[in-house]
Amino acid sequence: MPYKKLPVLEIGGKPVAQSNAVARYLARKYDLMGKNEWDAMICDVLVDTLGDLKQGE
């Protein structure tokens, strides 16, 4: 298990353990990033804001 942390997503037999990277990968794969680059950027802003809030705990 990379970094000894969860969650871990296995892609093609390779583990990926960074939750934001996994979320962005899945969003791109399943066309959840919005209709254009602006929508994709807003998705990134929301993910990054949640990470910032979590660090403030």
UniProtKB/TrEMBL annotation:
Keywords: Transferase. Residues 1-34 form the GST N-terminal domain. Signal peptide: none annotated. It comes from the Eukaryota. It catalyses: RX + glutathione = an S-substituted glutathione + a halide anion + H(+). It holds the Pfam family GST_N. GO terms for biological process: glutathione metabolic process. Its EC number is 2.5.1.18. GO terms for molecular function: glutathione transferase activity. Belongs to the GST superfamily. Sigma family. This is glutathione transferase.
